[in-house]
Design brief:
This protein folds into 2 domains: 98 residues, no CATH class; 201 residues, von Willebrand factor, type A domain (Rossmann fold, 3-Layer(aba) Sandwich). Helix content is 38%, strand content 25%. It is built from 9 helices and 11 strands. A 6-stranded mixed beta sheet has the order 5-4-3-6-7-10, with helices on both faces. Strands 1-2-11 form a 3-stranded antiparallel beta sheet. A two-stranded antiparallel ribbon has the order 8-9. Strand 4 and strand 5 form a beta hairpin.
Amino acid sequence: MNWMNNYEFQHPWLLLLLLLVPLMIYYHYKKAASTKASMVFPHAVVFANIRSWKAIGRKILPWLQWIGIIGLILGLARPRQVLQEEEIKAEGIDIMLVMDLSSSMLAQDFAPDRLTVSKAVAAEFVDKRPYDRIGLAVFSGESFTQCPLTTDHKILKDFLNSLQCGLLEDGTAIGMGLASAVNRLKQSDVKSKVVILLTDGVNNTGYIKPMTAAEIAKEVGVKVYTIGVGSQGTARAPIAKRANGTFTYGLTKVEIDEVLLNEISTSTGGQYFRATSQTQLEQIYAYIDRLEKTEIEVNVFKRYNEKFRPFVLFGLCLLLLEWLLSKSILRTIP
């Protein structure tokens, strides 16, 4: 039974004794109301509104008793602070995210564009994998590792958030993006190594062919999941770049080499997915998250810091105070 955050009672059933206190209060006032004076003074009414400190004190006496009893009951229930420690042994998975930064990722068939949505969904995926090392590679006409494998996911998400199109030569070098990720994973000694490659186009540049990179991935035990992101038909996307670095937009046909992406993934034991909306992309990452489960062994150790003493001491002090007052300065004559 929780008391407050990480507090609990060792014997919570003893708290049922608290129900006796309202009965005691009820009995006390009922008895006082039914008690009549044995001798009537006709002119005593003039003293009715005169209140001495003793009269007030005698009304407080039973409350000292009741509150003292409450303190003792709480103490008997043994409140204690739970000091919990966890020893976690996680057999993590090394994951490289590979993100396409070609200008077509600014297409507005996703709101506000494909790249912004892809970054946000990838960040949510990272948050769900606290025990895995995750890295980030990017590509367009060329590729490089934006963030090596790390368990510092805050830094990883900072790198992810900073991604923008135009940092690299434009184009779609899928093979080079995949090769950069595999190169980071081949030195890993964990059992499970995964690449999640997201692109919205057709391989049209790069000196490493996509299937060559896939063969290397297979040889070093890397499983590749590929995601084609983009709506069906046409989309409003960049068609030219101005001198000031901004893009001119127009309707273009959405072209994704799904055959190639499917071949890459199946040859390495992974799967290919097509995302035509943000919801579908979120579902794909959630599905991959379920497929690639990290084995975690958690041993929980609990220590307790007893907190009953202050309640017992408080209750006993109030009961002792009530007894002393009732036998001395607040004593009533029968």
